[in-house]
User: Fold this.
Amino acid sequence: MQTFQYQQPSNVNQAVQAGARSKTAQQYADVRFIAGGTTLVDLMKLDVERPNQVVDINTLPLAKIETAPGGELVIGALARNSAVAHHAVVQRDYTVLSEALLSGASPQLRNMATTAGNLLQRTRCPYFRDTAHACNKREPGTGCSAIGGHNRMMAILGVSKDCIASNPSDQNVALTALEATIQVQGVRGTRSIPIQDFYLKPGSTPNRENVLEPGDLIVSVTLPAPVPGTRSHYLKLRDRAAYEFALASAAIVIRVNGSRIERARVALGGVGTVPWRSREAEHVLEGQTANDATFRRAAEAALKDAQPASENGFKVELAKRCMVRALTVSTQSA
Amino acid sequence: MATDRKPTSDLPEQEQQNDTQSQQPLTQRVSRRFFLSSLGAAGLAATASPVLAATATLEPAVVEQESEAAAPAGAVPVTLKVNGKSYTLRLDPRTTLLDCLRENLNLAGTKKGCDHGQCGACTVHVNGQRVNSCLTFAVMHSADEITTIEGIGQPGHLHPMQAAFVEHDGYQCGYCTSGQIMSAVAVLSEPVGPTDDDVKQAMYGNICRCGAYPNIIAAVQAVRGRA
Assistant:
């Protein structure tokens, strides 16, 4: 691990100024914020991340989980995954988020990992994580070792000829289906970014994963006020029953009136280069009868443009069945 | 990329050991770790200068000069509270909490299994919450209460969970065991359901190559009163 200068800013502004000195907020940033450290320390040990300044933001007052006057839930950037997952309001009104969080990592990691840090988690692609292998995400133009290599866990949606690295997150798939917004404080003030607009597909610049710029510090994540009658569910399919990343997962937020689907939001995990919002599935679902035939048609639409690699073709059917099952569970009479 | 092992001038020395230890025969006061390191030092002493031979004693060598040379430029001062005691250190900021506990504070009960947050052998409590000490830097924890396996119980006054692991044969090689016990003790104050499956779900962040899982679950359930 490269050595670094350790800093502890005493307020958000100081943190922003410290971060602003970085040449980039993306891969190989020379200034990194550290909160839980569960991604950053891991990658620093692998020499995949090499900051020369590490800015410890753990003492900043950003950990609250509060309902705003309009009914939105504002989750502080430093709220730990375990605190969010076990929060009464999250469990009652945003069940998909609690289920997603509890399906991921381990109890120890969930006590360390923060909401904002989780937004920024990195791919588990073994070639990205091993500097002995060529990787366009680390160094654009050097080649993708996963294409034509071992790619069973990699993406089938949002891929490019330069990168097929899957986004492994559970939290962010749930937040996508919930249409969360991300509040960022930067050198030019604060702004709110819909999660739909936060992530960047790899294209020819897989080293750029999100829209953050140097100095940008995520301060909170906001969930829209819950609508009565809405149900939500997260289903994660993987090789082991616990402690493993998703092969395919589905987050559903749905409101049914009688047997008619009034509103549906669908996101997929494990199969996209980013948390995968499926408007294609939503267009099929809304206004239709909540039954197996409808769910199956939605799943077909969602995976229509899938581009499997040499070892992950099974994910196309797996993702469809995952979505159908998640829709079934979230619309079953209680 | 392990950070360099070094004795430091802040080493707590024998006051860190059990009270009962000073009454034990000399051969039992020498830890396995120190014995092995003195074999190495004795080997050096046989071929090197008399100065090195002086380090091959039965007391852990507090080598002032070496520790000053070993504290690198950019070392960060930090005071850590571990098992109720305060330690003031100057650390390379890359030092993980795990390496600090084991190498700087000689609290070797916490184990390094994978060093990447995937096995749970390094589990300790920070402010009562279980965490993987391998994925956090020691310098980040100056305001925190840290509890390790050494602080849970000691020979002669074991924590009920430690006693249960013994009674239910909850270990074989013992390498995952301190992490298992730290997780299990945390489970006692977390919202975990009553069944064995609930315990499995709560403990899956601690893996055991020997496969002692059924006995680990039995030990945990015994303490929870659900055997």
User: Anything to note?
Assistant: The two ends of chain A are 52 Å apart (CA to CA).
